[in-house]
Amino acid sequence: AGHSHRRVAHALGDATGKEIMRALLAQVRQQPHIQVWEHTFTIDLLTHEGVCRGALVWHPRYGKVLVWSKQTILASGGAGRLYRETTNPEIATADGYAMAFRAGAQLRDMEFMQFHPTVLYIAGSARSLISEAVRGEGAYLRDCTGYRFMFDYDPAGELAPRDVVSRAITRQMEKTRHPCVYLDLSHLDPDLVKERFPNIRKACVEFGLDITTDLIPVRPGAHYMIGGLTVDAEGRSTLSGLWAAGEVTSSGLHGANRLASNSLLEGVVFGIHAGRGASQAALDQPDDFTATPIAFDEEPPTREDEFNLVDMRNSLNTMMWRYVGIERNAEDLQAAARQVQFWDRYVATREFAEPAGWELHNQMLVARLMIAAAAARRESRGVHYRSDFPDTDPRQAQHITIDSEF
After folding, report:
1. Of 144 and 263, the one with more pLDDT
2. Average pLDDT of the residues in 220-240
3. How buried is residue 85: exposed, middle or buried, by Cβ count under 10 Å (0-12/13-18/19+)?
4. Is 162 a catalytic residue?
5. pLDDT tens track for 109-163
6. pLDDT the model gives residue 304
7. Burial class (CB in 10 A: 0-12, 13-18, 19+), 297
8. Is it the case that residue 82 has pLDDT exceeding 70?
């Protein structure tokens, strides 16, 4: 959606991302000098005299481990799990933004969270993405009465940009007082649909839905974080020794509204740039590291009876969805800021001994930064929509940056 021409390349129908990951992993496994630590959580970046020197990580077998590095590349993904409704996997808990901010790197454009308009809505189940390529092939959006409503909101109908479609769906749900709308592919060639969307078809079959004949229940969900670490064209952050690639960055590629599939630029192209740049910088850097003995305190006991991490995270997700979601306004953003400040009194000073607690720390921090950025941008631009400032203000055509002094 939003493209002026059909320019997106696909692999195995709707499995492009999976194919890219398969090829990359195969290459990684063939490189004997690359170590892969699975199920490992990065707690914080290590800095010395304003230079990133590696990271403190937690491994389920070895515990906390200091990983020293001449150059560090951050590729930790997005922040979709800050929201109740999201297409993102469980690991997208905003950790990279929080770590970089604490280390002193500059963040930018944190108000720009993109919401995908069509996420499979089955009550009580995980949310699966229904690609907008489905609408690109000609699928209709209908409300619970069967009415095709998108042309009421935009002349491009179902092919309008994501932010427009997401707002239209939300408003139509409010009008009809129904929890979702529906994608209709029944008028399309069923053989074409099966060939073009095998994985979407498979996901829907699990819930007894045939995408060639049935209406598919969908609603918007948090999908892609456009903001992140300020980086240059090589993936170099504002913190010396730290590079970044992918969704954790604010590269400037997407402006205020990412086009479909352009995340590949940030992930693959910037990954290559950052890898080459960091490698060359490491070669040029003298190897003057000296061992420093560090003793970790005994892990503090967890007290689940006093503090329920799951309840707190769910409350945060619901609050972000309600107040810092598809449509925003000053009153809601102020309420969100007060709520995070209240919760933070209980979270910020606590010591955790497991990833779930560290993730909550990170989510609270990033939520605060996103709320502040959204409140500061008193206009509507791209994916950031303010109902109290519905127009775009040319005077605000600039980045909102957040430094460690925030």
Report:
1. 144
2. 96
3. buried
4. yes
5. 999 999 999 999 998 777 788 988 899 899 999 999 999 999 999 999 999 988 9
6. 47
7. exposed
8. yes
Position 253 scores a pLDDT of 87
Torsion of CA 359, 278, 105, 238, to 10 degrees: -160
State yes or no: pLDDT of 303 exceeds 70.
Answer: no
- If you write DSSP's letter for every residue of 265-325 in order, what string do you get? IIIIIHHHHHHHHHHHHHHHS----------PPPPPPP-TTT--HHHHHHHHHHHHHHHSS
What are the residue ranges spanned by the domains of the chain? 16-113+223-284, 117-221, 309-402
How much is the pTM? 0.91
| Residue at token pair 């560290």 | 358
CATH of the domain spanning 309-402, picked from 3.40.50.620, 1.10.3720.10, 1.20.1050.10, 1.20.58.100: 1.20.58.100
Q: Six-digit token pair at 91? A: 């690991």
328-337 per-position pLDDT tens digit: 999 999 999 9
Cα–Cα distance measured from residue 381 to residue 391, given in angstroms and rounded to the nearest whole number: 8
Closest to 238 (Cα-Cα) out of 43, 42, 101: 101
Structure tokens belonging to residue 346: 């209980």
Q: Is 261 left (phi over 0), alpha (psi -120 to 50) or beta?
A: left
The two structure tokens encoding residue 174: 């409010």
CATH match for 16-113+223-284 among 3.40.1550.10, 3.50.50.60, 3.10.410.10, 3.40.640.10? 3.50.50.60
Domain 117-221 indexed as CATH 3.90.700.10: yes
Q: What share of the chain is helix, strand, coil (3-state, %, to 5)?
A: 35, 20, 45
pLDDT at 264: 80
The crossing angle, in degrees rounded to 10, of helices 330-347 and 355-376 is 150
Q: Which entry of 162, 167, 368, 381 is annotated as an active-site residue?
A: 162
